[in-house]
Amino acid sequence: xxxxxxxxxxxxxxxxxxxxxxxxxxxxxxxxxxxxxxxxxxxxxxxxxxxxxxxxxxxxxxxxxxxxxxxxxxxxxxxxxxxxxxxxxxxxxxxxxxxxxxxxxxxxxxxxxxxxxxxxxxxxxxxxxxxxxxxxxxxxxxxxxxxxxxxxxxxxxxxxxxxxxxxxxxxxxxxxxxxxxxxxxxxxxxxxxxxxxxxxxxxxxxxxxxxxxxxxxxxxxxxxxxxxxxxxxxxxxxxxxxxxxxxxxxxxx
Length: 253
Fold this sequence. Notes:
- With about 250 residues, this protein is an alpha+beta fold.
- The protein has helices at about 1-20, 35-50, 80-85, 155-170, 180-190, 200-205, 210-215, 240-250, and strands at about 25, 35, 55-60, 70-80, 90-100, 100-110, 115-120, 125, 130, 145, 175, 195-200, 220, 235.
- It has 2 domains: about 1-130, Fructose-1,6-Bisphosphatase, Chain A, domain 1, CATH 3.30.540.10; about 140-250, 3-Layer(aba) Sandwich (D-Maltodextrin-Binding Protein, domain 2).
- About 35% of the residues lie in helices and about 25% in strands.
- The longest helix is centred in the N-terminal third of the chain and has 20 residues, at about 1-20.
- A hairpin with a 2-residue loop joins strand 8 and strand 9.
């Protein structure tokens, strides 16, 4: 945890410096981009983790890696790259360590807010060293939720927008910050009451899902079964709203 916190903080400072200098941007897909800051931040994180833990494996968004190692660091150098590229100040560094594919420690650092979310398995969740917990909202009508749209939105728009319509018409509001790590950490500290998204990757959830879970959140797949970092879907809430959220997201024929 100490290493993850230090590396995340340093990577956040590097990212802000690179943003001020104007990063290069290229497309990985139609709307999926990567910047030179993503690559440089990931290189820094990899180098530090390798130096400190030479026997551990690393799986990262830009450089890939193996996912079957017993001890695995999972890294997203910038979650919210589109926000970062546009100067929209919501993005984060995410670093987690998994043991046998289960997150045991994680850090999400938002450098613009200077908020560091941390969690260890069984050790609770914190923001800037203060304990955090999910909200106690139980009335879906007054709930504020968060969601994200995958880069495959154009191919899956009917399903994704149908989900969005059903949920937004049943709750008080939906926010789309553009970074799943932030959405889950905001769930953890009670700023939103639930979250759902399709198309997620392990580096989107390895740290933030642990933060949310340790703060008291309930996390499942769309069918209500146990959440798995390596299956690309997540429904999460403060617990009180989970049944209703799952009902709204239930596949329609």
